[in-house]
Design goal:
The chain is an alpha/beta fold. It is 35% helix and 21% strand. Bound molecules: NADP nicotinamide-adenine-dinucleotide phosphate. NADP nicotinamide-adenine-dinucleotide phosphate is lined by residues 155-160, 182, 184-186, 215-216, 220, 232-234, 237, 240, 257-259, 296, 400, 402, 428.
């Protein structure tokens, strides 16, 4: 039997008492390691984190915590090679795709280390200026932000075992809130290994960082009123989390990052042959193929003017045809595998479901796998679908196929395009392609209420923009509506989730002692 990975809880490495669940290589089909959380005393582990880890973190200043994040960055950088090996084996990703997760996670942690330095030698924050409460200026109100006295439980998705951990842990630890992470079982190895390296380096106080791998059973039950839970995953599991008694009855604060049917929109002025048109085709293909389309932010719907539909279908298909799919260990391969057989089955099923209302413009089945056995490897070629009647088809607007699949849709005019985009009911990100700054700005504002991020691509930023699906720590991540309604990152805004705001009403002498 393969190695059973340990959990780190209550300041100790502990193995579950069961045989656990196996993690597999999605390309070779071999078993890699096992995870198990059976029999762990979760209540004791959460109490240890809450009491010991929380108290120790809160006693430190933001600058001291920022220095710990910077130290963790160094440890992670020193072990990068091992992380790449785990990612290749467990996630089946090519090097560039592993980098999005591994280096993206380390970069995000480093960004918060730098941001934290600016917060200085204090362990609470003032929120805005003091405000007079009456005629006499002596009695005023000063809002303060103090870290919550609970734990932050992270329940994460399989597609970002590194980035998903650090994009949440960085702002939580900087805020002074201890972290317990439960990675998705399918790809838990990388999360466990990164936590292990950081824990073994002795950077954070005991109880500040814990990891539970394996079943989620009992984790939500262990939450108490001042704890917070941040969930990333499917809408179905999100509904379970939202309705759990911890949230519904014990007032646990919750952040949900769920699935989303993100859009790319080519504006009417970007005719075939224009630079903006080419930028759209390039970005769509990148989004469809990076991590085999297993990105919550990936483009799923592509809206183009009716007159550009055929040209867009051709341009995107021509680029997709060049994508080599297969074993990520082979240098000729550009796109690796899906995470496991279950996801492969789910993507095939989702594709067939959409194909009942859509034409296949580029068929992923035409891609012969490189260096991989189709009977074993969880690899699938990229498929571009097309629907000429964008109003009539309903499935494309509310189905997220979590793989290399996107659908092209024509629109009549900008108002029609915006109405179609909104049928996604709220998304993480929409990208807009055009050349005229005022039209682009107006369109961005039209999309802003239903998208956490609007990524505007014009020829002047062709070489500079950070990518439709790339989540940068400086910018907000999360989206309204079916995207879960959550908010993460956005620089120091992320710290808000881990702090409680309170208004201190007092004499100006007292407020001065607060630093007001
Ligand atoms: P999932 O099946 O919903 O699982 C997410 C996490 O929830 C896993 O850790 C899972 O553990 C855990 N879980 C399952 N049932 C649970 C329960 N009853 N109580 C508590 N936790 C439970 O999602 P996934 O398949 O891993 O991820 C793919 C989905 O995530 C896609 O739809 C994608 O769009 C979305 N996603 C969103 C974002 C974002 O930022 N918005 C980012 C990445 C992915 P097990 O693995 O042990 O079952």
């Amino acid at each position: 039997m393969t190695e059973l990975l340990s959990n780190f809880l209550a300041g100790q490495w502990q193995t579950g008492s069961g045989t656990g669940a196996a993690l597999f290589d999605p390309v070779l089909g071999t078993e890699l390691v096992r995870v198990d959380a059976t029999g762990l005393d979760l209540a004791a582990g959460f109490a240890f984190a809450r009491e010991q880890g929380g108290a120790a973190l809160r006693a430190l200043t933001y600058r001291e915590r920022a220095a710990m994040l910077a130290a963790a960055v160094k440890v992670l950088q020193a072990n990068r090679d091992a992380y790449y090996e785990i990612a290749t084996a467990n996630s089946g990703t090519v090097k560039n795709d592993s980098a999005v997760d591994i280096d993206g996670g380390i970069f995000t942690l480093g960004t918060y280390a730098k941001l934290g330095e600016t917060l200085g030698e204090r362990n609470y924050m003032l929120d805005g200026e003091a405000a007079r409460l009456g005629k006499d200026p002596l009695f005023q109100s000063q809002h303060v932000l103090v870290p919550t006295r609970g734990v932050a439980l992270f329940i994460n998705a399989f597609n970002f075992p590194s980035w998903g951990l650090w994009e949440k842990a960085a702002p939580a630890l900087l805020s002074g809130v201890p972290v317990i992470v439960k990675p998705a079982t399918a790809a838990a190895w990388l999360t466990q290994r990164m936590v292990k390296d950081v824990v073994d380096a002795g950077i954070f106080p005991p109880g500040a960082l814990s990891v539970v791998c394996g079943s989620s059973a009992g984790l939500m039950d262990a939450l108490q009123t001042f704890d917070v839970v941040s969930f990333t995953g499917s809408a179905e599991t999100a509904a379970v989390i939202r309705s759990h008694p911890a949230v519904a009855q014990r007032f646990v604060r919750v952040n949900i990052e769920a699935d989303s049917v993100n859009s790319a929109l080519l504006l009417p002025d970007a005719a075939p042959g224009s630079e903006a048109f080419d930028l759209l085709a390039k970005e769509v293909v990148r989004e469809m193929t990076v991590k085999s389309g297993q990105k919550c932010t990936a483009i799923r719907r592509i809206f183009v003017p009716e007159a550009s539909y055929d040209a867009a279908a051709q341009a995107i298909s021509a680029r997709l045809a060049k994508t080599t799919v297969g074993n990520p260990r082979n240098d000729a391969v550009r796109m690796g595998a899906l995470v496991n057989r279950a996801q492969l089955a789910s993507v095939r099923e989702g594709l067939a479901y959409l194909q009942q209302q859509a034409l296949t413009l580029h068929d992923g089945a035409t891609h012969t796998l490189v260096d991989a056995d189709p009977a074993i490897a969880c690899c699938i070629g990229p498929s571009l679908l097309g629907v000429r009647d964008a109003d009539g088809a309903d499935r494309v607007h509310d189905t997220e196929v979590f793989g290399p699949v996107a659908t092209l849709l024509p629109y009549r005019d900008t108002a029609h395009a915006l109405a179609l985009v909104r049928r996604g009911q709220g998304s993480l990100v929409a990208s807009v392609y055009g050349a005229d700054p005022s039209t682009l700005a107006a369109t961005a504002l039209q999309l802003a209420d239903s998208h956490g991020r609007v990524h505007v691509i014009s020829p002047d930023v062709a070489q500079l923009h950070t990518g439709h699906g790339n989540v940068m720590p400086q910018s907000l991540h999360g989206g309204p509506g079916r995207a879960g309604g959550g908010e993460e990152l956005g620089g120091l805004r992320a710290l808000g989730f881990y702090h409680r705001r309170s208004a201190v009403q007092a004499s100006t002498a007292v407020l001065a002692a607060l630093g007001s």
